[in-house]
Amino acid sequence: MARPERRTVRDVRRGNRAMLLRTLYFDGPASRNDLSGLTGLSAATVSTMTGGLLGDGIVVEAGQVDSDGGRPRVLLRVNPLYGYAIGVDVAETHVRVELFDLEMHQRAKVEYALRPARHEPELVAMHILAGIEVVLSDAGIPAERVLGVGIGVPGIVERGTDVIHAKAFGWNGVPMGALLRASTSLPLYVDNGAKAMGQAELWFGSGRGAANAVIVLIGAGVGATVVADGATFHGVSSSAGEWGHTKIVAGGRPCRCGGRGCLEAYIGAEAILERAGVSTQKAGWQEELTRVLASRSSVVEETVEYLGVGLANLVNLLNPERIIIGGWVGLLLGEALLPEIRDVVAANSLAQPYAASSIVLGRLGPDAVALGAATLVIEEFLNATPAARVPATG
Amino acid sequence: MARPERRTVRDVRRGNRAMLLRTLYFDGPASRNDLSGLTGLSAATVSTMTGGLLGDGIVVEAGQVDSDGGRPRVLLRVNPLYGYAIGVDVAETHVRVELFDLEMHQRAKVEYALRPARHEPELVAMHILAGIEVVLSDAGIPAERVLGVGIGVPGIVERGTDVIHAKAFGWNGVPMGALLRASTSLPLYVDNGAKAMGQAELWFGSGRGAANAVIVLIGAGVGATVVADGATFHGVSSSAGEWGHTKIVAGGRPCRCGGRGCLEAYIGAEAILERAGVSTQKAGWQEELTRVLASRSSVVEETVEYLGVGLANLVNLLNPERIIIGGWVGLLLGEALLPEIRDVVAANSLAQPYAASSIVLGRLGPDAVALGAATLVIEEFLNATPAARVPATG
DNA sequence: GCAGGTTCCTTCGGTCGCTGAACTAACATG
DNA sequence: CATGTTAGTTCAGCGACCGAAGGAACCTGC
């Protein structure tokens, strides 16, 4: 019922250009001939379109391939130096800023520590702005070549306004977009950090090629990215994916959200440690958790049970083709206990959807939020309108 | 990542035509001028497009409206007699076939009882085929004027092949599509009955205008239709929406699916009655349930609690703008206890997504599966390619 | 009853984008 | 070096939208 937009003949061009660029980005390098086959566009159209992209410096030649007996095919690919994407990870303990080229190779990186309970929006904004300056000068790249800045933050981000609600930071309606735009003219893309990271796994990690997937992120908090028909699902007010506070034990263990029986109250980092009787006051959660998991105690068994039930609910409700487990707790759990987790999911989901889904671990490690944030920039780059731009020289 | 299709200039036409037809269908009657405003298309384009639709008999004039001081506007609307849609409800106790015109006015109807445990696919197919004949001859409408037959069945329907897996019927891989197509050349659209009914509520009931909604259906079984960005979500193997077997009490009450703690094991019709100590052997569940609900016993309180928790999980995970409660149990529960249900949802969901969602009752009653199935036909009609067709005479 | 005003609708030329077909380019082979 | 093969380009044609200009159908006031 969402009424589609009016289309005009120019939208055809934009859509086809985006498709071709996408193909080249994910499946490249490819010859014009290959592209014609991959996209379904006629050779003529591919030719004129690549001509434009080559002229803009967005696409470059990448060698030749002999073709038996005929003119060799010229390979094309997206120019990795056409532009750069900055990704920012705003987390509880730090603000990290990373600079990537279009191939997602990291070119520079800087991190600012945040003191506990010192998350003033202005401070965070300052770190972000400073970080942008630093990574650019470290890599020797002028700001004009930056396609945009993606920012992954905790909490809920209102789309359009970039207003943030983050309980963990005490942020309630922080206009981070406006705050930053006052001091920089770079295009900004703000989204929830878990969703950004989910998109990274989807594009470059274990999710490649999946149109229906769920990427769950288990760390101190618990979240999920729901990918429906190829697109990240945001819901009506951008808060879709709050998986951590779904109830799996009606009237169960109290959660820091104020509710009871939340998934996070069983499989979040703090919850596991508490249930294992380990103090969560001192540092070194990761080592402690590793130790707890190795113990294979009943707490571990229960954790697997709860995680499996939570995942089974996703399998039943959403029928994804792939479930990707990420986050540092998720990866520790998965590395130690993936077969057991799968068994619990099988026992608690319907046979048909279970058979259609595979459960795998994330491939990008627990620290891919900045990378994920940068993919927000790439996404925009791939869809962008063919516009007049400064020609690239890189 | 689902790569979009290649587009050509003709797709523009098709998309715009579909949009215009959709607008006329849901918001009509409207003048050409109105349509220009509503669709964003230029007056010129609307004029040529409506010209074609009028010529095909798909659209007809519907009176005039004076416009102060100028030429009166001619109203247009979809010709309700251009074609007809047949909807079939295949349920445990009956096969019901209904004939609708394009305005969804029922023109004829026939029902065949099914004996318990007599659900042979051939028998059901026979009833469907016979029903089609009967409603057409009752209404005096030739088969050529039927745009298609929508069929709502229990269980999971594989999209594309129309193969059905329905545990309740003992159907495991029944090729219902092929079975029927052997005896009729009418276009067939098979889908899960709950999803079909969900689409009916979305289009004509309480869901009008919602792009992100969940329609939950509570009867003997419990299911949900997830609507994401305007489209019913099916998942990778068409089984999305199996909400009834999500676990809300880890290790809880045994369910007929073999699992434990399923939502259906608490709020399904049978589950409520059993928990209230009412025998489910004899008939008259509806009266019994009404009595149980009126008692406001602790069982009723618990039922509200479980339903609320289940809905709260949907609110958190999917962030819908509207949740619609349907099905005969759902409607009974909602009529008696909607405020209490809302309170439980509020207590068990996050504030931000809860505030963004409204929880309402279905408006089409508990028996709208055939209507919903017919909407599958309408959907196709609205999107169809402008093709050469027999001109309408109705 | 008619000139002028207003609003709705249609017609027409212009532009844009895709396509098939013809054509050119660049190689291998004998 | 003639021939064959494959890759890529150019060009005329078609379909779709749009803006602008023109026509249609009504109202108002004199």
Task: Considering the chains and any ligands shown, give keywords for the structure.
ATPase_NBD (chains A, B), DNA-binding, 23% strand, homodimer, Arc Repressor Mutant, subunit A, 5-stranded mixed β-sheet, Nucleotidyltransferase, domain 5, alpha/beta, 3 domains, 16 strands, disordered C terminus, ROK (chains A, B), 394 residues, WH_DNA-bd_sf (chains A, B)
Topology:
The structure is a homodimer of 394-residue chains.
Chain A: H1 9-27, E1 30-31, H2 32-39, H3 43-56, E2 59-67, E3 70-78, E4 84-90, E5 94-101, E6 106-113, H4 121-139, E7 146-153, E8 156-158, E9 163-166, E10 171-174, H5 176-181, E11 188-192, H6 193-204, E12 213-218, E13 222-228, E14 231-232, H7 264-267, H8 269-275, H9 285-295, H10 298-318, E15 322-326, H11 328-348, H12 351-356, E16 358-361, H13 369-383
Parallel strand pairs in A: 4-7, 7-11, 12-15, 15-16
Antiparallel strand pairs in A: 1-3, 2-3, 4-5, 5-6, 8-9, 9-10, 12-13, 13-14
Helix pairs in contact in A: 2-3, 6-13, 8-9, 9-11, 10-11
The first copy, chain A, binds a DNA duplex (30 and 30 nucleotides) through α1, α3 and β3.
